[in-house]
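Why does residue order matter? Because the sequence determines the fold. Keep that principle in mind as you read this record.
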Amino acid sequence: MVNENLIHKALANPFRREILRWLKAPREYFAQGYIDLDCGVPANAILARSGLSQSTVSAHVAALVAAKLLVSTRVGQWMFLSRNEDVIRAFAEQMRSHL
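Structure:
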């Protein structure tokens, strides 16, 4: 379930950790119209907040999705992102028990 190496690689980048922080408390970081509590935050809202290029943000999001730290949900033309709390919890517990 938890690929420790992929997660460490994903978390090594400060911007990826920032994305996870934003999605932990989306009401603090995104306008109300952007949040869909059932689906998450649209990828374009993360892009707008970051000030980075679309390709850069996509690469960072892809790394977080590959590590299963984020879940992406497509609704029509929109891609919504949310944290995978089960994986985050399992990884934290694994680190706590092994270190």
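The chain is about 60% helix and 15% strand.
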